[in-house]
Write a structure and sequence with these properties.
CATH class of one domain: Mainly Alpha
Structural class: alpha+beta
CATH architecture of one domain: Orthogonal Bundle
CATH superfamily of one domain: Transferase(Phosphotransferase) domain 1
Strand order of the largest sheet: 1-4
Radius of gyration: 17 Å
Number of strands: 6
Strand content: 5-15%
Order of helices and strands: HHEEEEEEHHH
Length: 190
């Protein structure tokens, strides 16, 4: 069981405190890596179950709490001890779902292309970038997580930018080539 005590200021920008008991199953990234290290694939039924639980957690966050995490990724999805729940964590960048943001948020492998401005170094984390919808960027990260659960690898080589060869296939609407690459590749997250 996870215990969470959250106090969020009205601006959602400071003073988030969370206390978690140790979860023996860890997070989704760890689960996928463990399977890969054992040279095993996660069963299709398990993947469907994980996707369903992830969807339920996100729906609660988006439609009940009216928030976006702004850092959806496998590392921020904890697995309850009995595998009955997936729990979102790391609300350090969380905002209201209809916010328009102008600074980097999220992790580059899951980040929407409008946030991945290649001209700026990642170290410029507080640099202003063109405004983007927090909700739309969250949907991109959500889809990236679902993809990673099913294929057990990231959808893009580095990040979704015009220089990434896999992202170019998506932009060119060459979906068959995009999925053929991932199906043919034996590469996993490890």
């Amino acid at each position: 069981m996870v215990e969470a005590h959250v106090k969020v200021s009205k601006s959602l920008s400071k003073y988030t405190l969370m206390k978690f008991k140790a979860l023996k199953n860890g997070d989704l990234l760890r689960l996928i890596k463990r399977a890969s290290e054992k040279h095993k694939r996660i069963s299709f039924q398990t993947k469907l179950y994980l996707c369903k639980k992830f969807y339920e957690a996100c729906c609660h966050l988006w439609f009940v709490e009216k928030k976006v995490l702004n850092d959806l990724k496998l590392d921020n999805i904890l697995i309850s001890d009995c595998f009955t729940k997936l729990l979102l964590c790391d609300f350090g960048h969380a905002t209201h779902y209809n916010m328009v943001l102008k600074t980097y948020v999220g992790t580059k492998k899951y980040r929407a292309p409008e946030i991945n401005v290649p001209a700026l170094p990642f170290s410029a984390a507080n640099a202003e970038i063109p405004p983007f919808s927090a909700a739309k960027a969250e949907v991109f990260a959500f889809a990236s997580v679902l993809f990673t659960i099913f294929f057990e690898k990231f959808p893009f080589s580095e990040m979704a930018t015009s220089t990434d060869s896999l992202y170019k296939l998506i932009k060119a609407e060459e979906y068959e080539k995009f999925f053929a690459f991932h199906i043919a590749s034996e590469e996993t997250l490890v």
